[in-house]
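Checklist before submission:
- one chain only
- standard amino acids only
- sequence pasted in full

Submission:
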Amino acid sequence: MAFHPQSLHDAPRAEINMIPLIDVMLVLLIIFIVAAPLLTHAVRVDLPVAASAVASMKPETIQLGIKADGQLLWNGKPVEEAQLETLMSEAGRRTPLPELHLQADAATPYEIVAHAMAQASRTGLEKIGFVSKPEE
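Returned file contents:
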């Protein structure tokens, strides 16, 4: 390497030395090339083949209707609140767990709907869906 003396009228130049950066990038590239096959290592297993149908058990759906005056309907039949607790606890013990579809009138107070949801949660019915009319 030859050094050239700077003349007095040349201002110092601020340049980034790219050589160390390129060296580091090449080293990282080599590391990734060597390490990549180690990350994709898989164990080959010869699995047996069986001809069986997929078992799809669709959960039962239960319709719980709540009218604006607080009347409760279990699958379309009127029930009392004490009877509802028994029906919900029976449904909560079934396998697969049924889905509860809640149909409440638009004028039903939220307190009644929240009480029915809490009762369903306590008895083990975890899947609750709200049924509504689509907009026109």
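Reviewer check: Helices lie at 19-39, 81-92, 110-122.
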